[in-house]
Amino acid sequence: MSIAAADKTTATETVPRAGRRWRLGGLRRLILAPLFFLAVMVALEIGVPLSGVSSMTMVPPSAVIEALQQHYAILLQQAVPTLKEVVMGFALASLLGIVLGAAIASSERVRQALYPNMVFFQVIPKIALAPLFIVWLGVGTPSRLAFAVFIAFFPIAVSTATGLSSTSRDALRLCRSLTASPWQTFLAVRFPYAVPYIFAGLKVGVTMSVIGIVVGEFVTAQAGLGYIVMFTSSAAETALALSAILLLCGIGVGLFLLVSLAEFVVVRRLGAPIPAGEFA
Amino acid sequence: MADATIPGAATGSAASGRAAWLVNAALPWILPIGTAACVLAVWEAVVRIWSIPAVNLPAPTAIATNFVKTFGTLAYHAQYTGAEAVGALFIAIAVGTVLAGIMSASPFMRDMLQPNIVAFQLVPKVALAPLFVIWLGIGSESRLFFATFLSFFPIVVSTTAGLQQTDPTAIRLCRSLTATSGQIFFQVRVPFALPYFFNGLKISATMCVIGVVIAEFISAQAGLGFYILLASSRAETTAIFAALVMLCVIGLAIFGAVILAERVARRWYSG
Question: ABC transmembrane type-1 domain spans which residues (chain A) (predicted)?
């Protein structure tokens, strides 16, 4: 069903513009972006040495790859704690966020009481609390983990609550007229309808948990890729800093793709059988 | 809800019916504020009863006292943080909307840039903060551009989505009425894209403050991020919280300004 809906949207998008050049447009869409990325890299590769800036300021991409190869042992060694903490932080934040989101959506009164406060918390710059977590939990893993959970769970909780409370009213009425218990309604209707919202929150959350751990490593400066970035950049070893950033990007994108894969699997198994729009 | 209480009120006294209706109408306001007040009260009580040292967790009243006492210092630091955040947001709006306009006007540019921008969204851009200091020095520029860098992506992505999702029927109608593409852009696409633009802007409004604070953690001689780091190195937790209150004020002021701008823009376009 969702595939059919996706087909419908792409059809309306492409028909008025491309017409019979559709095939060419599809190909262009696939290769233009990587080509552009490649062009930027080539421009950096040629332009950086030509411009004569020192290797402290900027280095060509090849130097970053070289630094990655040269120091890959230490970089990988530092990547392990970062990756571990990011995954643990994300898992905790997901659990906490989904449970709290479900609690918020469980009753109208609870929702009214908590939701505006959650949105308020979303708006304030929580990053500024990072040094406080060190005061509370020391400079070790617990403080970074707690900080990552703290900033990653809000988007998950808010979107879970939104998803659970945006079930179609007609579907809920149908359940009631079929004498479904609230728990049955939750499992069979409300939760499947909320799955896309929950995953939207999880996708934001996974990026936030990487950010949380990296900022934590900036502030505590003990180990991890964030510490390497901080240390090497203050020593003006830009190539090494950029290669650590490259690894961090790999972690961020890799985890995001994993969440997207999980979404694909879960939506196939659990996804709402009827698109919300068809009830209206 | 209101319907249910009014018939019951007719049998009782009219005054109590109105009171019930008022309570129901005010509940969406009372409940969240009441919850926040309860949390603060519990916090205060816990700190006092167990006499938790202020280094670990200061009481809300102590934070308020500290905030009032150091207001001058906080305002001095807030002025840098606030100015840099607002400046960054304005640059982000300018760059973001122009880029979104270009991408919606030219399918070529869109196919070329959009996937790269979306991919960049996933990258932990925060890790680049120290590099901005290397590139731009420890002055205001590095913080300004880092905050711009963080806050312009949401604007580009959501404005582009908005400009693309214009109702095709409306565009066909305009074309059949021989509107130029410039007219279509400003009179159809832009109003359609406004809600999307403001959605992105709301995210950016929080990101720009976050960007400035992170950059201040790394390099600054002034600003609330600097003040927080300094206070934490002296273990003055109360001062950290007071600075945080100031940061919230800045964040909420910028967010409120965005909401206000959204109202004005929507009224302008619907009128």
Answer: 79-257
Task: Look at the block and give the residue holding tokens 């979107």.
Answer: A159
Question: Is A135 in contact with B247 (Cβ distance < 8 A)?
Answer: no
Statement to judge: residues A21 and A128 lie in one domain: no
Q: Give the mutation candidate from B57, B121, B134, B208 for the A interface (greatest A CB count, under 10 A).
A: B134
Domain with CATH 1.10.3720.10 in chain B: 60-270
CA distance A74 to A76: 6
Tokens representing residue B136 in the block: 């731009």
Which candidate, A76, A78, A88, places its Cα nearest to that of A144? A88
With CB atoms and an 8 Å threshold, state whether A35 touches B112. Answer: yes
**ipTM of the modeled complex:** 0.75
Q: By CA distance, what is B230's nearest residue in A? A: A131
Shortest distance between the Cα of B9 and any Cα of chain A, in A, equals: 22
Q: Do A245 and B128 touch (CB under 8 A)?
A: yes
Residue A17 is part of which domain span? 1-52
Task: Determine, for residues A124 and B248 on separate chains, whether the beta-carbon distance falls below 8 Å.
Answer: yes
**What is the chain B residue with the closest CA to A205?**
B122
Q: What is the pLDDT along chain B (271 residues), one digit of tens a residue?
A: 344 444 444 445 566 777 778 777 777 788 888 888 999 999 999 999 988 888 888 999 999 999 999 999 999 999 999 999 999 999 999 999 999 989 888 888 888 888 888 888 778 888 888 888 888 888 888 899 999 999 988 899 889 888 887 777 888 888 888 888 788 888 888 888 888 899 889 889 988 998 999 888 887 788 898 998 888 888 888 999 999 999 999 999 999 999 999 999 888 877 5
Q: Report whether CATH 1.10.3720.10 matches the domain B60-270.
A: yes
Q: Are residues A105 and A151 in the same domain?
A: yes
